Amino acid sequence: xxxxxxxxxxxxxxxxxSTFREVASESDRLAAGLRALGVGRGDRVATLGxxxxxxxxxxxxxxxxxxxxxxxxxxxxHEQLKHVINHGHDKIIIxxxxxxxxLETIIDSLTTVEWIIVMGTEEDAVRFGSRGISYxxxxxxxxxxxxxxxxxxxxxxxxxxxxxxxxxxxxxAYSHRSVFLHSLASCSGNAFVLNEHDQILMLVPMFxxxxxxxxxxxxxVGADLILPGRNLDxxxxxxxxxxxxxxxxxxxxxxxxxxxxxxxxxGVDLSSLRxxxxxxxxxxxxxxxxxxxVHGVSIVQGWGMTETGPLASLSHPPKGTHPDExxxxxxxxxxxxxxxxVRAVDSEGADLPWDGESVGQIEVRGxxxxxxxxxxxxxxxxxxxxxxxxxxxxxxxxxxxxxxxTKDVIKSGGEWISSIALEEALCSHNAVKEAAVIAVPDxxxxxxxxxxxxxxxxxxxxxxxxxxxxxxxxVPRWWVPERWVFASSLPRTSVGKYDKVRLRDEYRxxxx
Length: 512
Fold this sequence. Notes:
The protein is α/β, with parallel strands linked by helices. It is 28% helix and 25% strand. A nine-stranded mixed β-sheet has the order 2-1-11-10-12-13-14-15-16, sandwiched between helices. Strand 6 (115-119), helix 5 (122-125) and strand 7 form a beta-alpha-beta unit.
């Protein structure tokens, strides 16, 4: 339907332009080449790569021959990467030439891998001996795709693993049906509103929850796809904005903050964006206001997780919202999009009222929500509800407000303190670049909050007394931390969230 829509690719720091027709042809040849290597129904074919044209071709080539696309998170540790490849029983791995060293370290421990296809030269491929083959060689052998197999819509199309922040990563399989329904819903008017007139800058890694579904939903409607490769620094992204004028993007807050600072200092125009979705961590009111007031760009917070396919809710303000209340709605976790049900439950599993005040664990179910893990039914709920691990409330309009993760919430003197709300309040201070709040043991109150703060440049004169005084006007006074750490940076997980496991390991015993 959209043969002339474009894929613009910035891998290897060079700008390549291809039409959908050309990428589809490449995908056909890759599919045929995979068949020639013995890939059949249900086989797992893994990818270890950046957002590139070749990776996009694999997104379509693998599921259409009834195999399963398994995207590998290139930011996992060697042990985690070895685990997900072996646990997924991957038969073939397609790897970017620049990431070959990550596989070389663990190659002898990969028990099911028969071939490694390197997106690079023959010299790169021979590093894997008899198992190595170049991407171009596979394309050359795939001249005739032949008849495609019938595929059960409920069979697995893709396999994604969680980021493994609280243990080994766990696999989530997306069916052909769930991928298609997720794509339809995400393009709709209450979601991303995508169509063929859009240029999607795909900043979410293709190894993370199918890049939030954008490779499929963008292709479905014929939107141009802009793939930045590994070039996610503000300078490179600013160059993309100058050349390609993207209309839609999605990313984590850190990337938006970095892009804002660079664009202001260097006069980069970001106003081509009609919508910028922000997820992965709580969105601050300061970030929403900066993009609205400085760039004329509307930020919409999205909430979801690998298990929710991943899109579950979006924070579009409701009809009739007064301009003064716009930011209030945009920093909420959002209202579920059609196809997703949501509820909050207490510790006994009973439904809580939608009053915006009753706090419990958020549970979801829907057409693309998985409540079980690959080769592990331990989380399976007979009624389809997924326990998200997020704590929050739901108001009478159905808007969710996540206040914490169950493992991050702070219980002080028998009362709950939201680490997310404290982080939001701290980041609204002009001198604060980033802030993370964790619970530390307290002999009197059981737990108290510890704030770990990264200051903006030229803000060294700001101290804990000033920040504590500022917080007293933002949150309940008893929430204000007594313990403070000023750091040069904050550790992050493989998907860009604050790594609170590492922070707790480092600081909990130091601040008793």
